[in-house]
Amino acid sequence: MNFHAGLRLIGPGMVFAATSIGVSHVVQATRAGADFGYTLAALIIIAHLVKLPFFRVGAVYAAITGESLLDAYHRQGKLAYGIAVLVNFVTMFIIMAAVSIVAAGVLANILPFNLSVNLWSAIVMFSVIGLLVGGGYALLNKLIRWMMLVFAILCLVTFVALFVVDLPSPASVQVDYSTATSIAFMVALVGWMPTAIEVSVWHSLWVVEKNRLESADVHHPSKSAAPLKDSKLRQVSKVILDFNIGYIFCVVFALMFMVFGAKLFFGQGQALQDSAIGFSAQLITIFTTVLGDWSRPLVSVLIFIAMYSTCLAVADGFSQVITRIAEKQFSLPQQKHLLCYKSIIPMICLGGWLVIYLFAGQLKLLIDFATTIAFVTAPVFAWLNLRAMSLPNVPIEMRIKGAYRLYSWCCLLLLIGFAGFFVYWFLF
User: Fold this and answer.
1) Where would I find the beta strands (DSSP E) of 226-281?
2) Where do the structural domains in the chain lie, given as residue ranges?
3) Which of 32, 172, 214, 364 has the lowest tally of Cβ within 10 angstroms?
4) Residue 327 phi/psi, 5° resolution?
5) Where are the transmembrane segments (predicted)?
6) In the CATH scheme, what is the homologous superfamily, with its name and number, of domain 3-427?
């Protein structure tokens, strides 16, 4: 397989990775390293392992049925569907604000204009609206392939150089994991590591959209002779491979950013700032400290690309979900899908900007609120995703079974235990 063929294979899995690497990795994992050193590495790995089966369902269910997980929730009844709708509406503006304000902070450190974070955020969101309204998922998929490739190269070079350059020795630091602040942060870290489980709905929508865009090629005469079952199995295998690539990407870069925070901030007497512009300046410093001041312009642009790709993915994901909800609620014809999608993108960006306008100086508060909601609701979406794979429209031979089924249910029990512990701790 040549390089360009490999890039074409990468699709929704890398869009999923771009969604994750924005806030949970760049912000939360860096904070984990800065405040706790290397000690939360196990928690980061456990979070990825425990959530793995439920994210995987998003890709597999869509590949098997041609439907999104939102359709699967609808098949499970009004309560399941209502929960999914409610969580999306409660979090969409906050999450859009959280990812956009970080991108705006990086942009403020690149361009020599003394504007407020509100104006920088507006610039980011206007450009997001323009790109998605103009190109939709097809453009998103193409952009993110290259954005993630370039950003990955930057991070890998910095990571290797981090262990070559001389850095100040950290002071001895005693970390208290039992304080309210520590527990709240660990909850927030797990809540969005690699991201919220409801993002599996977005992933399923991206798989459906990718398949729709490729439908002309699928029906090519040279491919139509293959048995339907074999064709479906190949399609599912390709989707799983794409998902695995994106998920491994998430694990590796979460640990990498944790190491960045630990090596450059832990025990150095320097706390991470709350403001988006201040935090972004510190984030750029992570790379320039290792690579040298010459790299500042290049690093700044590449970090902005990484954060901007998250803004695009989040805006598209929520817009896809709200569009499907509107289609079901108001029985909109399929012909209205694109118009509805393009109308919802500005609404989500405007709502996100209003949140930034009200809470611009409280970056940590914004992110911790959204991630805590994700932590508490994780067992609900995990359970709904497992039930989706047992619906009548999923062939028996393609359902979760055997050791992997046992592993999935053990992961669900762990999520319930984590959420139960947090609720008990918070109330009592």
Assistant:
1) none
2) 3-427
3) 172
4) -65, -40
5) 6-27, 39-64, 79-107, 119-140, 146-165, 177-197, 245-266, 298-318, 339-360, 366-386, 406-427
6) Amino acid/polyamine transporter I (1.20.1740.10)
